[in-house]
Request: fold
Amino acid sequence: MKGEGKNIVILGAGESGVGAAILAKQQGWNVFVSDIGGIKDDFKQELINHEIEFEEGAHDEDRIFKADLVIKSPGIPEKAALIVGLRNREVKIISEIEFAGYYSKGKKICITGSNGKTTTTMLTHHILKKAGWDVGLAGNVGHSFAKQVADGDHEWYVIELSSFQLDDMFDFKADIGVLTNITPDHLDRYEYQMQKYVDSKFRILNNQTHEDWFIYNFDDPVIQEEIKKRNLEMKLAPFSLNEEIKVGGFATNEQITINIKEQLTMSIHELALKGKHNTQNSLAAGIAARLVEIRKDIVRESLEDFVNVEHRLEFVAKVNGIEFINDSKATNINSTWFALESMENATVWIVGGVDKGNDYSELMDLVKSKVKAIICLGVDNHKIIEAFTGVVDTIVEANSAVEAVAYGYRLATKDETVLLSPACASFDLFENYEDRGTQFKHAVRML
Reply:
């Protein structure tokens, strides 16, 4: 896409926005960055160094509406007045990923899903790195895709994509698309219509041809239903915990099998990541790696030595026999379901935050069998209290990570677990889920 003399406006000056601004400037666009909030000092300095115009704390609508193209941060909702105004004027709005895709020559493995996408992305990247490939990590993890393209591009990228990013992607194509699962999440952004959210996730397949691959969760009923409705051109490589798969991968109680070209098998006990959901993530990453012909021994080694991402079922410490686990990244019911399912000891569960339309009844059986006490960590906890009163004897409320950890230490005894797995967004008491997890870990270490 030729940028010479055209106006591009970038809404949001976080990492992806600043990366897009640098690439746009390099490609000859007239660049203007606008952030309704404050811009962090290091990002501001980058914009200054690249002589890019920016504003913070306000939006100059007259200038923004003159844009030929707008790149928006995925966090800005469609119903924001500025976005509505741009749509009314038929200004094209895209994501940073779409924009970077115009200029990158690299091949792309793209991963989406309600849960497991970060772990699967990191694991796939780990395998390609171990194989010695020139590979970038981008999207919701790693560094700005646009900035990496501006800095010289990579031969390969592993990209984690949220539904919000996919919504603003049109011409972009994944060489390999991965869909880990679909469960209700972010429905507030999709008018509480599940089909709209499903359609968003399936945009991972946009523009794929018969030469491309789609790796998906064969056991997910929502995905299976959707596949029946569509005439898919690309090649399919599903993974399953229930069925033997001829092209793709599957797991039994004892081993995983990946059937891509030659068969790869390994004991389930050798996998670095434990729990059924992580077996699915390992299968998805392993299939992707074998599709691009990474040697079996490297795939096997990588699945054995991978270290999981921070804030995802992360062991923090054992204090007087009580185990503390940070799963702050669990911002929806399904993530928390996986966390509770993998608990082996009686658990004190820290839950709460900004509710995205949660149905806590889905957790009821696990809570009955595993949870001895609940600590609500949020501003408004009435839904949680209502759901679990009479199910769990002890329910308390905390206003900070320090208070929640103190309660956890008091309520748990030796050989029990205190689990932070909030099932909610964090914006009521924290900056983001990382901040929540970091404060939790700090509080544990202060015990």
User: Anything to note?
Assistant: The domain at 98-305 is CATH 3.40.1190.10 (UDP-N-acetylmuramoyl-L-alanine:D-glutamate ligase). The chain has 17 helices and 21 strands. The mean pLDDT is 93. The two ends are 56 Å apart (CA to CA).
